[in-house]
Amino acid sequence: MVISNKPLRFILVALLASLPVISFANTEKDTAHTQTEAAHEAVAEGHHAEPTDVKSKIKAFIGHHVLDSHDFTLTQDDETGKYYGFSLPVILWDNGLQVFSSSKFNHGHSVAESNGNFYAINHHNGKIYKTDAAGTITEDEKTGNPTNVRPLDFSITKTVVSIFAAALLMFWLFSSLAKSYAKNGGIASGVGRIFEPLVVYIRDEVAIPNIGEKHYKKYMSYLLTIFFFVLFLNIFGLTPLGINATGNLTITFALALITFLITNLSANKNYWGHIFWMPGVPKPMRIILAPIELLGVFIKPFSLMIRLYANIFAGHIVLMSIIGLMFIFKSWIGSSLSFGLSFVLSILEILVAFLQAYIFTMLSALYFGSAVEEHHHEEEAHH
Question: Which is nearest to 375 in space by CA: 282, 293, 275?
Answer without folding.
Answer: 275
